[in-house]
């Protein structure tokens, strides 16, 4: 049974999260405002006034930024609960990134031409042309990620070999999905149906979901319950809760309402045929062999919630030579899991910040392990970058929505 959020420590975590959210929102607003006006003023002074000869129509250059500024102020004043208007904020985010980021890139590159112009008297402006190319590329990436990238489902094949895997499980296949965030899909049942069909088409032995099925409210699941219920595997569909599933980012009228929402999230998963592992485990059997599938509640560093009880979840798994853990936040691996005999941990949470170039992503500055398979000795961690996206930033580029198929192999040890 899930730990209810009416304990004193949970109140403190929630308060800390709200304070962090308010501070982050204020700082972000300042950054957005500065990025909005500084490149515009620079480009207007350096280029627009020269090309228009001081014509009053040159002021039309500022119209897109003025509209964005009014939209930013309206968003800040209209609601304290950003998720309540997330689709409007998402539209603003894409529009902002499409217009402002190319200007910012161009401004930075253009500034690099100034020494060439004034010290070496160059007439050409190579860095400005580079800024045009890079800015245009950024604009195209944002538009691609917002229109097509967020539903460009990527099936990744991964092999994990372990000497502890029983012979009967050699070749055992697991489909992992994570971070669906149904509230961000804006009722797009067609895209999610495509993802479910892809997952089922892999014909794996087991399907696992590693948290964040909603943004905040259980009601977000309602348009998609019958689709997600179609996920089937011989050994079942198992899930855990992520930080969003506890509802910390919504202004609940009472703690009772918040606790009821968490129960609703659990009940809806049960009605879909998913088995939720809240600090619990199941034993999967093949012939006379068995492995342990363990699931814990969210284990995150502040301000993310921490409700996991790994020792409790592992009680009764001692007879299993191979242990598989589901834990939403990958930082749990180094903070606790590596000190146990768990062979493989599956997680999500990072999204790779929904933007990557190969093995390079902004998320690497926040998470030591943010995407793919990591090894420490014989122990492994796999981080899935998520199937969905945060509605406040409805795009993916490079970090395509992921379906992972993990094949377990028995590693033969040489004598």
From TrEMBL:
One of its GO terms (biological process) is lipid A biosynthetic process. Keywords: Hydrolase, Membrane, Metal-binding, Transmembrane, Transmembrane helix. InterPro entries: Calcineurin-like_PHP (IPR004843), Metallo-depent_PP-like (IPR029052), Metallophosphoesterase_sf (IPR051158). The keyword Hydrolase applies. Pfam families: Metallophos. The chain crosses the membrane at residues 28-47, 59-77, 89-114, 126-147. PANTHER family: PHOSPHODIESTERASE YAEI, TRANSMEMBRANE PROTEIN WITH METALLOPHOSPHOESTERASE DOMAIN-RELATED. This is Metallophosphoesterase. It comes from Butyricimonas virosa.
């Amino acid at each position: 049974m899930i730990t209810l959020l009416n304990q004193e420590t949970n109140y403190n975590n929630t308060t800390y999260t709200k304070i962090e959210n308010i501070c982050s929102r204020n700082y972000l607003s300042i950054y957005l405002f500065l990025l909005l006006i500084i490149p515009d003023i620079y480009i207007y002074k350096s280029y627009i006034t020269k090309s228009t000869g001081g014509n009053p129509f040159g002021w039309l250059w500022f119209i897109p930024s003025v509209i964005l500024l009014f939209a930013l102020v309206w968003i800040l004043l209209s609601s304290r609960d950003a998720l309540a208007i997330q689709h409007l904020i998402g539209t603003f985010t894409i529009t902002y990134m499409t217009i402002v980021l190319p200007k910012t890139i161009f401004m930075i590159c253009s500034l690099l031409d100034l020494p060439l112009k004034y010290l070496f008297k160059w007439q050409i402006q190579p860095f400005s042309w580079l800024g045009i190319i890079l800015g245009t590329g950024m604009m195209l990436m944002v538009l691609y990620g917002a229109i097509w990238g967020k539903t460009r489902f990527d099936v990744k094949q991964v092999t994990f070999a372990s000497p502890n895997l029983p012979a009967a499980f050699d070749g055992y296949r697991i489909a992992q999905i994570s971070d669906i965030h149904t509230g961000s899909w804006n009722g797009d049942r067609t895209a999610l149906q495509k993802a479910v069909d892809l997952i089922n088409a892999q014909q794996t032995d087991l399907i696992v979901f590693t948290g964040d099925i909603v943004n905040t409210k259980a009601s977000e699941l309602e348009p998609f319950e019958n689709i997600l219920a179609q996920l089937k595997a011989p050994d079942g569909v198992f899930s855990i809760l992520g930080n969003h599933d506890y509802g910390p980012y919504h202004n609940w009228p009472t703690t009772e309402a918040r606790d009821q929402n968490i129960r609703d999230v659990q009940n809806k998963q049960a009605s879909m045929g998913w088995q939720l592992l809240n600090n619990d485990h199941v034993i999967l059997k093949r012939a006379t062999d068995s492995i342990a599938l363990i699931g814990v509640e969210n284990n995150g560093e502040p301000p993310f919630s921490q409700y996991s009880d790994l020792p409790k979840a592992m009680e009764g798994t001692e007879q299993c030579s191979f242990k598989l853990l589901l834990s939403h936040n990958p930082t749990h691996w180094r903070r606790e899991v590596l000190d146990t005999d768990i062979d493989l941990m599956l997680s999500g949470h990072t999204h790779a910040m929904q933007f990557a170039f190969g093995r390079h992503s902004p998320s690497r500055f926040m998470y030591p392990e943010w995407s793919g398979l990591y090894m420490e000795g014989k122990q492994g961690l796999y981080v899935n970058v998520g199937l969905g996206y945060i509605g406040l930033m409805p795009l993916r580029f490079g970090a395509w929505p992921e379906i992972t198929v993990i094949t377990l192999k028995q590693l033969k040890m040489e004598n």
